[in-house]
Amino acid sequence: MIRPACLAMLVSAGLGIAALPFALPAAAATSAPADQVAAEAAPVLVSAAQWRQMAQNGSRYPLFAHEQARAAEALRKAMAAGVVVPPPKDPGGGYSHEQHKRNYQAIHGAGALYRLTGERAYADYARDMLLAYAELYPTLGKHPAGRGQVPGRLFWQSLNDSVWLVHASQGYDAIRDTLSAAERRRIDEQVFRRMARFLSEQTPDSFNRIHNHATWAVAAVGMTGYVLRDQDMVDKALLGLSKDGKAGFLKQIDDLFSPDGYYEEGPYYQRYALAPFVIFANAIERNEPQRRIFAHKDGVLLKAVDTLVQSSYGGYFFPINDAILDKGLDTEELVAGIAVAYAQSGDAALLSIAERQRRTLLSPEGLQVAEALAAGRAKPFAFRPAMLRDGPDGDRGGLAILRAGGEDGQTLVMKNTSQGMGHGHFDKLNWLFYDNGQRVVTDYGAARFLNVEAKAGGIYLPENSSWAKQTVAHNTLAVNEQSHFGGDWKLGQRHAPAPLLFAVTGDLQIASARMQGAYDGVVFTRTLALLEHPELGLPVAIDLLRVQGSKPARYDLPLHFNGHIINVGFDAQRALATRPVLGKANGYQHLWVDASSEPSSEPRTLSWLLDGRFYSYRFGSSAPSRAILAESGANDPDFNLRREQALIQRVDGQPEVSFFAVLEPHGEYNGTAEYVRGASSRIRALHRVRGDDAEAIVLTLASGASVALAIADDPAPERRHRIAIGGKTRQWTGGYARFDMPAGEQASSGTENRTP
Question: Does domain 257-382 have CATH number 3.10.270.10?
Fold first, then answer.
């Protein structure tokens, strides 16, 4: 038999596993090693029979075969390097951090490939790696670069230790029956029990939290419990250390997901937490099917997969809260989520996402996905308008998603969610807009270069707190240059927006919410809509923000946008020689002022070009406002911030004000063919009308026709309202109405739309 050291030498010489100069007996590739081993060592996270089925059938389905080949190639590189288990030293992105990450991936992959091929070299490699950890792990204390309240042992934070254990437990389960009793005992006790104990009994506050760190920890401990046949360990993972149900995996499902499957911390962290939720749930289903874990809370884990896909545009997740912008549908956590959700639900629309990912799991669920794709069962995923409620009971606000024009058409996201715990941003009633496959009205996300050691070791940068979380960094109201809740997330956690409206009709989609408590004595209500009209080439976004304060204040309303400015449609003093800074704190210190207008109540315009499409933004306010053009990057000595543009409307010395605007996508610029079409806006004018208990935003189109969106102060469906538009009194029942008025006929009665 070729020993592991010799194997590594052969691999490093360029010989792949399949090319090694020895032949395994035929029985080794077809019979399960567990047949001759005591039951306590047989695999339980995936059964021996399931592994045999994958080994026999996997090559028939291209996606599964491709995934196996990809895993084999990655493992060959790891085996060529040998068993490398360095003492922990570095923070995220550093050498030791990345090596331990590669190691858990290698252990996981080696276990799967051993089961799929029967090649003992894979099992031996995983064994040798785990025996090396059995030597190292008992010697470890607090990580030398530890951060946060719970530093890890292998990694700088215990979260990463949990991730290691989730992956390594799966690989260990697959090869455990190949070990001698002494080897099993050593690895069981010195690696897996020690790590599980550290992540649970030795860090109880972290383990019992309702938070994504704890989700990874309970999944790691619970899966280890199944592998080691330790039901007490499993029960603590499911129910908390006291096993009373006040903490643990089930409580996390109950508290972190809304009834619609929206996750407390937003899509980016829903993506991250999805892996331990679905992987551990799958282990529970295999070992304790009587728990019916996928039916828990009305099947919320399966809803969470659909909700996460819905919370994306152009393949990327909405960058809400501390989000990295480049995370999207191809992330490995969602690969796991799609495979598990499809196996449980049979929803063929999920297959189209797997097809896009071009990845799957080396698991029975992955085999099901690959088989279904090979059979042509995939159906398009329906990206649809949706109101995703937030909070355990669905009563803590929500995420409103308005969509038109298909997957790469127009998407308007209104963030009316709860705070999102410590990763939340101070941006109630914030909005984002996507069009033509691009981010148009943007959100900064997190100020972080993930695992880039040269940038503060890959952790959150200081500017994440001083800029990215602050209200002025978002597209919502800032009062007196302060952030919502004074920048106190725990205070923010107690106050959620109140949704008022969500409705979708053929030519109008609308969402509205109200926020109280973000500032003392200030209530603000925002309504956003996607409106279609035959004279407009594309749907337009309408925005009305009404502010009611108890005393005069400074009100700022930023719009962070992406594109090259084409026309500044207002007089403004340009800062040509010097760039003044807008303020001193709460994010304002990071904004350079490039231009500023005098106060005016007249609607103004700003237009820009992005990826071959023009955008015209018309905006106004009920009280005189300044228009400020600004850019992020001031007071940034280490160049940590991206340089991004913003338009800020500023009203001073008023207790109340209404801001109103319309964003119109239009036209085409083709640099290759050198033509420009539709560069001019099709909206001639914008104005606001105030009635006794309602406001209307009126768009006058190029033809002279008009369309008005009337919005009631009280959205109760039974309430009747009236407002004078175009010399006529318009009446309707409910929270909103749309009135279309042809050119020269603005005095007509219009069309009444009632809220459902």
Answer: no
